[in-house]
Amino acid sequence: MIVTLSKWGSVLLYFIIFSLSSNTARRIKSNNKWLRVLLIAFFPVIFGGIRYYVGADYSGYLAQFNEVIYSHQSIASYLKTYSFINDHIGMFLVQKFSAIFNSSFVYFTITSALQYIPVVIYLCKDWDDSNSNSKLLSYSLFTFLFSFYPFGFAAIRQGIAMAFCLLSLSYVYERKPIKFAICVLVATIFHSTALVFVPIYFLCSKSGTITSWKKVLVISIAFLAIFEIDFIIASVGGRYLGYLDSEVEGRNLIFWMYLFWCIIFLVFRKKLVALNPKNDLLIIMFTIGTIFQILGFTNAFSKRIGEYFLVSQCILIPQLTCVFTKDSQKLAWFLLVIYQVAIFIFQYAILGQSQILPYSFII
After folding, report:
1. Cα separations (Å) of 46 from 43, 69, 248, 361?
2. Rounded to whole angstroms, how far apart are CA atoms 45 and 330?
3. 241, 355, 237, 256: which is closest to 297 by C-alpha?
4. Whole-angstrom distance, CA of residue 57 vs CA of residue 53
5. Given its phi and psi angles, is residue 154 left (phi above 0), alpha (psi -120 to 50 degrees) or beta?
6. I need a labelling partner for 213 at 20 to 30 A (CA). Which of 38, 66, 180, 357 fits?
7. Which stretch of DSSP H or E encloses residue 152?
8. Partner residues linked to 4 by β-bridges
């Protein structure tokens, strides 16, 4: 049985599901870290698994899954014609495993889990060191769910790649290159553009701080990349040649929002870095992501490269509440929730981005 909610009923359901997950992070303090991760991720993952034709590319991914079921293509035969640029063996392996159960629910549940569980692992590991940080963890999850998780309902492969790139940050701080490389490798077998995240490892020290010359260099390279993006895409070739087509969504209004936050983060940089030195890297990441959003004025596809870096806002925005006095922090947290919900409504309910509304599901 297929149930389709109204647009505003769908918005309410998203709010309930995302709030359940973020509040679980605050209220459950299990000594078993994996149990805690699974409990936090449970509702959004199932929510993503039972959805039915929710997300702009849902039908395309479903068609790929059905093709794997009926073609009976082996992994060996897939590898014979495999191209790093044009093929995505990570998604093929998920489809092959899901085909065992002949279930689209299993398929979309696994892809939803791959988009969210790595994020939960990273945030629980690096941003929940004590009980005093539990609110930061909760609101970071809330921000991610409203800002990026719905994006993954449409761009499934890139959503998975973003999650593993975020997870790899743990190993940037710990200076564990092999684990970092494994995370980025997993990301690239779902979306090869995740390779742009590799330089992040070389930017900072174990404390998370970055020397001035590295900051100037990486910002300069980011600007150079957006001006030479057509040349870069043409050089890569393959399926990415389609990114050369000029297509713009919503006049790229979201760029101005990102620019606003970028300025705020830079203004409060010293206070944010004083709170946690890791924020220095996150601010640089967000600045790079904002620069890539300039591409959205001419091409809606190329600017998606910036999403790998913009995800840092999920940790930075909640920390801004710490610059307020203790008496004002409750108001700041409340305004943060209002802001995230308002942006969600603007992007998905008003502009109709990613086609995640109305929400339909299978019972």
Report:
1. 5, 22, 32, 11
2. 29
3. 256
4. 8
5. alpha
6. 180
7. helix 149-154
8. 360
Tally of CA atoms within 13 A in the half-sphere of 287 that contains its CB: 22
- N- to C-terminal Cα distance for the chain? 5
Residue with structure tokens 């101005």? 256
Token digits of residue 295: 């591409």
- Predicted pLDDT of residue 246: 55
Residue 360 dihedral angles phi and psi, to the nearest 5°: -120, 145
| Per-residue model confidence (pLDDT) at position 1 | 86
Alpha-carbon gap, residue 122 to 142, rounded angstroms: 14
Q: How many residues does the chain have?
A: 363
Give Dmax over CA atoms of the chain in angstroms.
63
| Residue 30 DSSP SS3 | coil
- Looking at residue 99, its pLDDT comes to 95
pTM tops 0.85: yes
- Hey, what's the torsion of the CAs at 91, 93, 121, 20, to 10 degrees? 70
From residue 193, give the alpha-carbon distance in Å to each of 185, 244, 269. Answer: 11, 15, 29
pLDDT recorded at residue 242:
65
Which residues are within 8 A (CB) of 211 and not within 5 positions of it... i.e. 6 or more apart? Answer: none
Comparing CA positions, the residue from 238, 220, 240 lying closest to residue 287 is: 220
* Pick from 1, 21, 55: nearest CA to 359: 55
Contact (CB, 8 A) for 25 and 134: yes
Residue ranges, the chain, pLDDT below 50: none
Q: 212-227 and 229-236 helices cross at what angle (nearest 10)?
A: 80
Tell me whether residue 88 is exposed, middle or buried, using C-beta atoms within 10 angstroms of its C-beta: 0 to 12, 13 to 18, 19 or more: buried
Question: What ranges do the domains of the chain cover?
Answer: 1-195+334-363, 203-323
Residues facing residue 302 across a β-bridge? none
Contact 98, 110 (CB under 8 A): yes
